[in-house]
Write a structure and sequence with these properties.
heterodimer; A: alpha/beta; eight-stranded mixed sheet; four-stranded antiparallel sheet; 9 helices; 12 strands; 30% helix; B: alpha/beta; globular
Chain lengths: 319, 330
């Protein structure tokens, strides 16, 4: 595995936004690798920079610093024409299927647009044929080809969003909370669909979500973010069995589990709220809420490997 | 042992429709349930199941020109809410029954300080004839109770985070010590760690003030944690109900309940593939005949398509499904 070039790799990736009060550190020094055909889950609470990270990786927002490698080539240095050709290989599925589809285009037009724009197929007949195939693969009835987004329910809209992303035969898809707006029974349908595509087409996913049960279900490796930084990264099972960062631990404990095993037992509850990401102090950003925090946490942290492929940024793991 | 507690709310055969020029939406179709003082009832279901409509009917807050209660009774402390006039309703809302809405961002008034918004409820329902000074004291007390320092009462809603806003909403809802609190997806808009804080706080307050609660949610995890009884709704009907133990530990379930449990990925369990319910919620303007779940049901029989399934009881556990009929026959 290690000798393979990862499909996506970032090094010291940064994205800062200028605000009236100072620099907002949305993404700060993120190092990650995603191997071809695998899924990296990115979890964190609102405002931790997970969506920004997804967009920077795709080149939808320019990075402030750092490098992004796609198949070993640094895409930050790409010209805008080269960037554009990347769009065929990298796609995104958005969170809100209500806001991400053009209300004035029919389902078939929405799915056909990327094919036309990227000159993948020429001729109406061929494009129509491809759209028909795509609709079938994602499970939208053919009679809905001329329906408009407002006529569809959330689950079907998300299927259209998936068909649109698949239309250019991408290798890599950023899924930004693709199921959070859906009901549980529909959510399960969409998750299964996405996992089938991964098996059949060898897709690589970066799966951004706040839902830990979903991320556990779909990911091979998980990255936990807090205020723009990655605090822990590990293979999925390892992270859930052996969380090493206090924030990961608190997140796992906060998820209500649908069984009566823990009923009535007092829970440890993480106190306080996320502090401002504007001009953060050096050192651990989680320290103000951490029950193990000491003076030493104010010193700059190192992201270290504690066991095979398990990385943590916490003073506690330093011996 | 539970029987000596007083019945607080009783709903009998409630039927609610939304009528527009074009169509009739059958939102709630003949549901009945009752709850006792101090009890927490979880109302579970997906979008369009009729959970929120049920809640709004209890407070008579349905949209006036479209929402209609066709039949049924809602008895609160023995009095039928459906027979009350405007004045009586005003005394009920906020004082005896209050409601927390899903989105804390939109349920507060952006141009009033949070302190004023809490005081407003106390002024409107001022039966104890509290002076302005006493009301201020009570505002401070409520803020402390929900874990916000009382110095922040002069701040406006936009100065608070989502979790803090929901705490303010809860403070407003509990200011008059209502007997019944209806919480409509109170934590759905919040992050998990904040959700844990809010739920923990609601539980503490509920037992402190001996309030009953109807918790509307789609999250079975939250139900397992705090509810005493559970009612599962589908297409405007309660299809299964019982104590949390009935729902989470019994073997027998309505096929829809099984589908719901099969659809959620779980932290405490390794599953490779979810077992979703196929198909979609039925169109509430054209509900199927017989059992409403039959078109999506993997165990559908001939009779399900024709006949409305009866409620089959086994102790406190009730399932509306033809599958369990034989157990019920004497």
């Amino acid at each position: 595995m290690d000798t393979q070039v990862p499909l996506i790799e970032t090094r010291k990736l940064k994205k800062y936004f200028k605000t009236g009060k100072g620099m907002l550190h949305a993404v700060d020094d993120i190092d990650m690798q995603i191997q071809k055909g695998s899924t990296l889950g990115v979890v964190g609470e609102s405002g931790c920079g997970k969506s920004t990270l997804g967009r920077v990786v795709l080149g939808l927002i320019n990075a402030t610093g750092g490098e992004i490698y796609y198949k070993g080539k640094d895409t930050v240095k790409y010209s805008s024409r080269e960037q554009k050709s990347l769009r065929k290989e990298m796609q995104i599925i958005f969170q809100d299927p209500y806001a991400s589809l053009n209300p004035r285009m029919s389902v078939s037009e929405i799915i056909a647009e990327p094919i036309r724009v990227n000159h993948i197929l020429h001729g109406k007949k061929e494009i129509d044929q491809r759209v028909k195939e795509l609709m079938e693969t994602v499970g939208i009835a053919r009679r809905l080809a001329y329906a408009y987004p407002h006529e569809l329910d959330g689950g079907r809209r998300q299927r259209v969003g998936i068909a649109r992303a698949l239309s250019v035969n991408p290798e890599f898809i950023v899924c930004d909370e693709p199921v959070s707006a859906l009901d549980v029974s529909i959510q399960a349908q969409i998750l299964n669909l996405m996992m089938d595509f991964q098996d059949d087409l060898g897709l690589t996913y970066m799966f951004i979500t706040h839902d830990l049960s979903v991320v556990k279900h779909i990911s091979d490796e998980i990255m936990v973010m807090y205020l723009g930084q990655c605090v822990e990264r590990a293979p999925s099972r390892e992270l859930f069995e052996n969380p090493r960062h206090p924030y990961t631990e608190a997140l796992l404990k906060a998820v209500p589990i649908p069984s009566l095993k823990n009923r009535g037992k007092p829970r440890e509850i993480l106190k306080g709220e996320v502090v401002s990401p504007i001009d953060p102090a050096p050192g651990c950003r989680f320290a103000p809420r951490c029950r193990y925090a000491t003076e030493q946490c104010k010193a700059p942290l190192e992201f270290r490997e504690v066991s095979d492929r398990h990385f943590v940024a916490c003073r506690l793991t330093e011996s | 042992m539970e029987d000596n507690k007083k019945t607080l709310l009783e709903i009998e055969d409630l039927d609610v429709i939304y009528q527009t020029d074009l169509e009739t939406v059958h939102a709630v179709n003949g549901i009945s349930f009752s709850m006792k003082q101090g009890e927490t009832l979880g109302l579970v279901g997906e979008t369009g199941a009729g959970k929120s409509t049920t809640a709004l009917s209890i407070l008579r807050l349905l949209a006036e020109n479209t929402g209609k209660i066709r039949k049924g009774k809602i008895l609160f402390n023995g009095e039928n809410i459906l027979d009350m006039n405007k004045l009586e309703l005003q005394c009920l809302r906020g004082e005896k029954i209050s409601m927390i809405f899903q989105d804390p961002m939109t349920s507060l008034n952006p141009v009033l300080t949070v302190g004023k918004q809490i005081a407003e409820v106390l002024e409107l329902h001022n039966q104890k004839h509290l002076s302005a000074h006493q009301i201020e004291e009570r505002v401070d007390e409520m803020l402390r109770l929900v874990g916000i320092s009382s110095e922040r009462k002069h701040d406006y809603p936009h100065q608070f985070s989502g979790g803090m806003k929901q705490r303010v909403v809860i403070a407003i809802a509990l200011a008059c010590q209502p007997q019944l609190l209806i919480a409509d997806e109170p934590t759905t808009a919040l992050d998990v760690t904040i959700q844990a804080q809010v739920i923990d706080m609601m539980e503490k307050l509920k037992s402190q003030l001996n309030t009953s609660m109807i918790l509307i949610t789609h999250d079975l995890g939250i139900v397992a944690e705090i509810c005493d009884n559970v009612a599962i709704m589908y297409a405007g009907e309660i299809i299964e109900r019982g104590t949390v133990y009935d729902i989470f530990e019994n073997e027998d379930h309505h096929p829809y309940t099984e589908g719901l449990f099969g659809s959620i990925p779980r932290l405490d369990d390794e599953t490779d593939r979810l077992k979703p319910i196929k198909g979609l919620m039925p169109d509430p303007t054209r509900l199927p005949e017989g059992c409403k779940f039959s078109p999506r049901c993997p165990k559908c029989m001939e009779i399900c398509k024709k006949e409305q399934p009866p409620a089959c009881r086994k102790g406190t556990h009730e399932i509306c499904c033809h599958l369990y009929r034989k157990n019920d026959e004497k």
